[in-house]
Amino acid sequence: MPDDFVISRNPDGDSTLPYLLRIPLGDGVVLKSREMWPRTAKVYCHRVEEWPADAEIVERVGTRSCVRRGAAIDLVLDRGRENRSQFVMTTVRGQRQVIFWQSARTNKKARPRVTTPTARASGVAALEIVVDSRERYGYTFSDRQATTTRARLDAGDYGVVRHGSLLASVERKSLDDLVSSLTGGKLGFQLAELASLPRAAVVVEDRYSAVFKLTHVRPAVVADGLAECQVRWPGVPILFCETRKLAQEWTYRFLAAAAVAADEERPAARIAADLVAAPPLSPAPPSPAEVRAWALLQGYDVSDRGRVPARLVAAYLDARDG
């Protein structure tokens, strides 16, 4: 058994993770798991202190290799199919440990095989993107026609600045960060700050479908929270862009389009300001009918046809404007 990969049923019937996995590494690593194998998606796992003595074993497979490499455990089973997988250890917000079990197949599905275009975004030859100084492991845009500088942004992680004003900004989030900031209330404050800008968005490095595969929080709570955020702040879209690479691509093109729009709007704003400051128009000259009606009320003798005498028009204007 020490060299076998073993799957048993979780004796805790109330757990949402119905299986136990024993990984033959050292004295044995025991995890709770949602599935028996990552066939269609990454599988969330959780650490267990010990293997139960009365475990109901479901499957036992010999191993060819089980090696820890950095923050991952590579497992190769002694069988023809479904034999290679990996357990990846990470943390949420630098505190809570999270373990995902993935295979080459599920990892490939999570990374769509697409080639992003190399054409400059919105025709901008050299877009300057400001990266928030608090952003860790941020986008570099190294393969895009853009340069980056680091500075403190009032809102978001990546922005376009003109004359000291933040014109557009994008907040980057992993799915775990999105969920924790949503359930903790932080996301609402971030969206309020972004909504104060001319243009802003939130980009998520995952698929929307991943929300409904969450195990450590009810998916309906997250889905409802996101919907409520979009209703309350409709001017700040939340975009799910599948992968980090595609999220960076979307951010680059969004900021370039925002920069072009800002440059186009600046002359229009000056024209609008000139229109507002224009002198008032002179009143239109009175019609003959207006002068005749006034003259009759004042007791003047005036014909109902023909040209109105200039002296009556002058008297009418003096009375109206005086």
Automatic annotation (TrEMBL):
Annotated Pfam families: ERCC4, Lsr2_DNA-bd
InterPro entries for the chain: E3-bd_dom_sf, ERCC4_domain, Lsr2_DNA-bd, Restrct_endonuc-II-like
Name recorded for this polypeptide: ERCC4 domain-containing protein
Coiled-coil ranges from the UniProt annotation: none
GO biological process: DNA metabolic process
Organism in which the protein naturally occurs: Nocardioides zhouii
A GO molecular-function annotation: DNA binding
KW DNA-binding (keyword) present: yes
